[in-house]
Amino acid sequence: MGADFALLVGAAGIGSNPDFLSFRFDLDQLAHHQVVIEHDASLSRADLSTGDNPSFNQTIWDTVLAYYRGMSQTSIPVAARARYNRVQTERARDPTFTYGPAQLIFSYGETALYLSTLGDPTTGVAPVEYVRALFEEERLPYKEGWKPTAQPTTLASLAAMVVKLNAANGEVIPEGLTLTETTLRAALRGLHPVTGELLDPPLQTISGLLGIK
Question: Where is the Heme haloperoxidase family profile domain (predicted)?
């Protein structure tokens, strides 16, 4: 994991704590919509308004896993279709579905992250058994043979993967939004990725204290 990405994600987690100046957080605090990285159409959780969003949901995860049926390794086109199906499903059934520019970036980022960290950060090829261990057992798949790659997952490599995922499913992105390292960084800092509007003041404070620009 590249230091630039790790620092931003850590700051986002700290910003989820109402007492953010304690510089710590727990996973339950990430379950609320006001937390910048929380988003609808998760690959393995229900939306906030339709179910228990912090807990792993096997039924939802099975809809993602179905796209990998018969495959031993992931691919960008298949991962892109699985992700977009989740967006379309929740858009149709969640009356409060929220999917603006920031949520779109985090939704793509979720898929880009598991492809990059469990497999090749450029090609997005990873063993499906690694992916299942991460989502179903919430652990890194050391037992299955996973090791960190020599190429770290950075903001730049994640942004490049997001672009490939979007190209693979052809989803139309909001007007004015570009899928770049700059917009990914802005979203993780609590800024609107198109307008630059401040969406998360605590996260902006944390970013300043940590020297994140």
Answer: 1-160
